[in-house]
Amino acid sequence: MNEPAGTTGSPGTDDPAGTAAGTPMGAAEAADIMADAARRARRQFRVSHRVTFTVWGLGLLLGYGTMWLSVRGQRLPHGPDLATFAAVTLLSVASVMSGVNEARADSGVGGLSAIRRRASFLSVLAGLAAMFALGGALAHAGASQAVISVFEASAPVLVAGLFYLSTSIAQLNWPVAALGAWLLAVAAAAGFAGPAGVWGVNALAAGLAYLLMAAIEPRLRRA
Amino acid sequence: MNQDGLDPVIHAPARLRIAVTLAALPDGDNLSFTTLQDLIGLTPGNLITHLRKLEDAGYVSTAKNGSGVTARTSVALTGSGRAALERYTTTLRQLLDSASRPQTRDALPNAPA
Q1: CB contact under 8 A, A30 and B39
Q2: Which end of chain A is more exposed for a tag (fewer CB within 10 A), N or C?
């Protein structure tokens, strides 16, 4: 371009007085600055769900997998306390880690987006809390161990599926909507695998779906 | 406006970076002063000076929440700031187009028929 060279525009060297009197910055240089600033901003404000998907995928595979390994072969599973403890611990760690990851993504950004993201996270926690309460209510009502096992294994996957489907459709985010629909289908179908098999089906079908999403997420974001 | 029709409030490297960075946020969002400072790479004093110019023009708004060590200053692009940046971008694009057109015209006679 033929514009005068003007100021360099390098960060920290700019004249605070501004350039109101003339045009020391050329049009081409201004365009370069705009492109660079936009690129930096996109990188800073980009929210990656890759860590969240990975953590949930591993949490389901290991947590549910442990439960399945400990109860398989039993007609009415009475899972050892250690396995239940491992499953609950892994899912809790997954929840906390994904929450921390999402919070880090919007560090520095306030306003509506941050409020929406926090509200989404809290709605998932509320859904999981309500689900655990309902599990207690089922036991209190005299539901069998088999029914409670099916419910405890599939309900969290159902809650997660509903969350992904409802939030992603509003944003026209079809890959995540597909994950949500898949989780709903898995949660429902896994129940037919019986009180022991339900853990294994959910571990493999839901856990691997999360890991697949984690693998393709960077490519989807670039598309 | 300056001689090129570019808004002089925006047409300075640091203020242009600030405006473009804030415009990357969705409407209703704001950015903390420290994050903006990290992204732009200015000293706090320099950034305050530029923000004041943009604020005087009505292009950005600043708000301070909390007090003491928990105080957080947030910066957001206003509606008129977003509109001004759009006008600036349009004018800049026209300038770049008009600057490249003569070169294209000069190159045409040498192009194969």
Answers
A1: no
A2: C
